[in-house]
Amino acid sequence: MRYILPVTLLSTLLLLTNSCDDDGPELAERYEVSLPAHFPPLPVPEDNPLTVDRVALGKQLFFDPILSKDATVSCASCHDPAFSFTDLLKNSRGVEGAVGDRNSMPIVNLAYANSFFWDGSNPSLEEQAIHPIINPLEMASDLADVIRKLENHPTYPQDFQQAFGGPPTTDRLVKALAAFERTLVSANSAYDRYVAGDENALTDSERRGMNLFFNHQRGECFHCHTEPFFTDFSFQNNGLYSEYQDEGRRRVTGRDNDEGKFKVPSLRNIEYTGPYMHDGSMSTLEEVVDHYAKGGNKHRNQSILLDNIEFSEQEKQDLIAFLKALSDPAFIQNPDFRPK
Known about the structure:
Elements: H1 7-17, H2 52-62, H3 75-78, H4 125-128, H5 130-134, H6 143-151, H7 156-164, H8 170-182, H9 190-195, H10 204-213, E1 235-236, H11 250-253, E2 262-263, H12 285-293, H13 313-324, H14 329-333
Antiparallel strand pairs: 1-2
């Protein structure tokens, strides 16, 4: 079972282990995120403004294995920018070879999400940042030990002072990580260029796949994978199994009608992020399309949108071509998202 710290306990922990909230230096340089016209403004909490120093500190921490118990695992170990911040494994590996129980989710456009993890067990980027650090299947750390390591590091104390106006604390640690993660915006795919007015951005096959994707009678993919993020951030049972070993959202709510429901993942950069599904049980996009075409495995909580669809081989190819048109090479190659 996934190691979950209840939100109420986590909030109490943050209050007990940290000093009063602060905004850092008054003249801190704000970090600007470039967004296309079809994206809404970037949501940023008032108590954690995006500044150049906070984002730089969060990036450094994201790629630093110092946060793990034995200094062997970093956030980037499971969230590699080359793969849209996932790791291409069915189940990720943690400290001492521990194997996680779910597939590593890509980190893309998370600033717009209202819950995190496959089961939505955390409501904010700041709170979710703590779980991989303390999860025994991931970094397996003790927060007090992490803060001591940061305090005794040759540069981190000054970095925290610059970003927050104070020494390392748990609150400042998760705020820095969340600040960096909010900047991970992917919005420069061929589809985005098409939406922006470049009629030549999509091939004929990609355009046919797009029409199928948004078709109300057949594809109907857009109901859950809505623009511009290609997810509606809801929880759905997609009929992956007739019986689920992983209860999904039910772990959080305790409700039977949430069994087998998982967060709808974004389809952006899906070309880079296999294997697919919450458990990494599908290796290819062809398998994914075939699963939906057959209408799932008829679980009692399965979405009513799933039904048998007779796709021709050409239609399958076109649909997959459109999914690949959501790839953003500039995102996975962006030096701002990679270690120095």
